[in-house]
């Protein structure tokens, strides 16, 4: 009986700790050196990922203030601001984007939760209420001027700079639990075309497990999330488990570089489905790309 009480007490303490930790917001800054001649002016932006409709501070004031303090050129969303099986509109995700859109251009790439809503259009047994809320959410974002990069690209060009931002939306097969599905280069190209030979290319690709395939497409910088930092983070080890139930995922959080290409993986801002966060507070990414 004593052990049961001890176990119950520890479990309650862990739940309380996880709840308190999710109220803390940390900023992580990464400086990326652009390859030669791909960029001539510094770019500064923030990345939001895996909010899952959570709030950080009353009416998101803590998160919004932290973003405003960075004075970014724009905001990139790397997927999963919403949560499947919950209405997208009205929602905290929409309220956050609405306020941020008054200050910055916003480029929104899809995660698996947005993709789940998109797939409803093909399901004859779909939840009409949720699907209608998703459609309304998208239309409202377009009204705000948000760029929805669902297998689309946008080019930002100044007198000396050419920056292309592309959103890659992968089917749900690439998010299933268990063995990782193989992603062919042809499938990437069929969805988003070939990358431009000029300028700097950012690819928003929610699932980081396909980093090698993304750099095979020649993305200069990949922005991902999905793994939630591995849920539980241990010193010197990193993330413990991914949402796809893969232990010690290779690409859990932070900066990864191969062959001169880079990927930054966000630990995310929220959680869903009772998934905990331990030693893994919500994270705002700040990225600066400097010309070579």
Automatic annotation (TrEMBL):
Q: Where is the Calcineurin-like phosphoesterase domain?
A: 44-229
Give the GO biological process terms.
lipid A biosynthetic process
A Gene Ontology cellular component where this protein is annotated is: membrane
**What's one GO MF term for it?**
metal ion binding
Q: From which domain of life does this come?
A: Bacteria
Keywords from the named record:
Hydrolase, Metal-binding
Q: Which InterPro entries match?
A: Calcineurin-like_PHP, Metallo-depent_PP-like, Metallophosphoesterase_sf
- Keyword hit for tRNA-binding: no
Cross-referenced PANTHER family, in alphabetical order?
Answer: PHOSPHODIESTERASE YAEI, TRANSMEMBRANE PROTEIN WITH METALLOPHOSPHOESTERASE DOMAIN-RELATED
Give the protein's recorded name. Answer: Calcineurin-like phosphoesterase domain-containing protein
Please name the source species: Herbinix luporum
